[in-house]
Amino acid sequence: MQELIEKLKTEAGLTEEQAKQAIATIKNFVVEKFPMLEGAVNSVFGGE
Q: Is 18 helix (H, G, I), strand (E, B) or coil?
């Protein structure tokens, strides 16, 4: 996931904290809309 954080920082100009929050927001959105994918999402983004 660190690679994605670095990409968001570089390409979107986000801070470390903003990048982490963006990832958490996307993760939560996907799980909310597609609960059957929760295992896969947690595998990709890490379960918290």
A: helix
